[in-house]
Amino acid sequence: MSLVQVLSVASEVFPLVKTGGLADVVGALPAALAAEGVRVRTLVPGYPAVLAGIAVSARHALGPVFGGPATLVTGTAAGLDLLVLDAPHLYARDGGPYAGPDGRDWPDNAFRFAALALVAADIATGGWADWRPDLVHAHDWQAGLLPAYLHYRGAGSPPSVMTVHNLAFAGKFQPELIRLLGLPDAAMQPDGVEFFGALSMLKAGLRFADRITTVSPGYAAEIVTAEFGMGFDGLLRARGAALCGILNGIDTAEWNPATDRYLEAPFSAGLWQARARNKAALQVLLGLAVDAEAPLFCVVSRLSWQKGLDLLLAALPELLAQGAQLAVLGAGENVLEAGFRAQALAHPGRIGCVIGYNEALAHQMQAGADALLVPSRFEPCGLTQLYALRYGAIPVVARVGGLGDTVIDANPMALGAGVATGVQFAAPSTVLLEGAIARAVVLYRDRPVWRRMQINAMASDVSWRGPARSYAGLYRAMLA
Ligand code: ADP
Ligand code: GLC
User: Fold this and answer.
1) pLDDT tens-digit map of 202-218
2) Which of 255, 285, 301, 462 most suits a substitution to test ligand 1, by most atoms within 8 Å of the C-beta?
């Protein structure tokens, strides 16, 4: 089996910079691919947190990139082989990867992420003497121009894979930027990067990549329909032969309830008393009544329309009527933050919320809650339900995308066969969410059934092993 060399290109990577599941995937897949004979080097922007977090091995001056000097820094962090684009005029600023401290997108995002794709294209076409990949793998719109740059360079370009983590982020910019970004005017047309009058970096990737993957088979089937295609469905149908879904895995070392450094009491399946200590600790942390018997639901999520948490706000009277508690960890849209804050104030001891981003608490929620709620309107894969499975928090999920692919609903058939791992409902509906919550509470109160579900959940294979094999197979097929 010959070694395959891959340049992975992304805008976030755990543990250095993370706003969501993209970082987890980009951070965990390389180690799993190494076991499949694939060497991955990951190119990311040189945000301050990235430059501060890597052990540098070398620096290579690049020519100017979009009006400022740039350096390619090589190094490692958390076992990752990183290539960092250090371009201070683009990345050396306080704030998030996409937006400033005021929450507004950085005005020069087109150039910030085009630079990433452009330098990747240079590396991929032999512009860096030290190393050249066999294949490039671009993640989401931030890397979407890479396949387009390679297309227009033509001969000598390696094949490219574009992975869609979320079609809702199209990476749209003014069409006038086309030339400034180094693409020909001819690219600004429907059969190029044009998307309803805008220049879309995601469209560039979807149009020009040799293969397109997305992060679950369910989402792969949904995005060719008008309902979930978000305007890209026509293109995706036309490219159907190049499209496939490969389910995400999780980093089972980082997310291991038996060794988790963030937990009050590490545990494994069957050690329910240890698990109960995490529940009590979580109840204390969130200001909830310490009550071993009350079913404790939790949410760990970006607070956005996608996640359907407005439906959960509407379903809270029913959740409370069931005698349940709710713990929320999330940040995002103001109305949702305010909504959960207000509910916590109105129902002290029953509803608790922490607004903000907190990695430790995310682990503690999975270990302490009885169930995790994911009422998403759409969900390309979803990682929190995978963490929940591994931690024995029963996922209660909308039957969309990767959620439908990863949770086995506790219907009478599955319960009879002893294989259920969670509860599903048809999205998006407050009434059906209420029904799912009620159903989960009934199951919870039947302790042997609940324990069986927890054991099944914790035994689910949520590792990267299978998915990594699929990616490696895809790469090899492309290079054959
Ligand atoms: P998405 O990428 O759409 O946000 P995923 O379920 O794929 O959804 O991934 C979300 C990731 O972000 C998970 O690792 C989850 O634990 C984490 N996360 C989301 N919100 C928070 C938060 N407020 N604090 C800590 N981690 C969070
Ligand atoms: C996106 C999706 C999420 C997926 C993650 C990682 O953020 O919203 O469903 O799990 O990417 O692929």
Assistant:
1) 999 999 999 999 999 99
2) 301
HEC string of 454-474 equals HHHHHHCCCCCHHHHHHHHHH
DSSP 128-143: STT---SEEEEETGGG
Residue 45's DSSP bridge partners are 85
The 3-state secondary structure of 192-256, one letter per residue: CCEECCEEEHHHHHHHHCCEEEECCHHHHHHCCCHHHHCCCHHHHHHCHHHEEECCCCCCCCCCC
Radius of gyration for the alpha carbons in the chain, expressed in angstroms and rounded: 23
Cα of 17 vs centre of ligand 2, distance in Å, is 15
Reported as type and span, the H/E element at residue 280 is: helix 272-285
Identify the structural domains of the chain with CATH numbers, from first to last.
4-249+465-479 (3.40.50.2000), 272-459 (3.40.50.2000)
Give the pLDDT band of residue 1 (cuts 50, 70, 90): confident
Contact (Cβ atoms closer than 8 angstroms) between residue 475 and residue 4: yes
The answer to whether the beta carbons of residues 428 and 375 sit under 8 Å apart is: yes
CB 217 within 8 A of CB 247: yes
Calpha distance 336→11 (Å, rounded):
26
Cα–Cα distance for residue pair 450/394, rounded to 1 Å:
9
CA nearest to 105, candidates 173, 179, 32, 192: 173
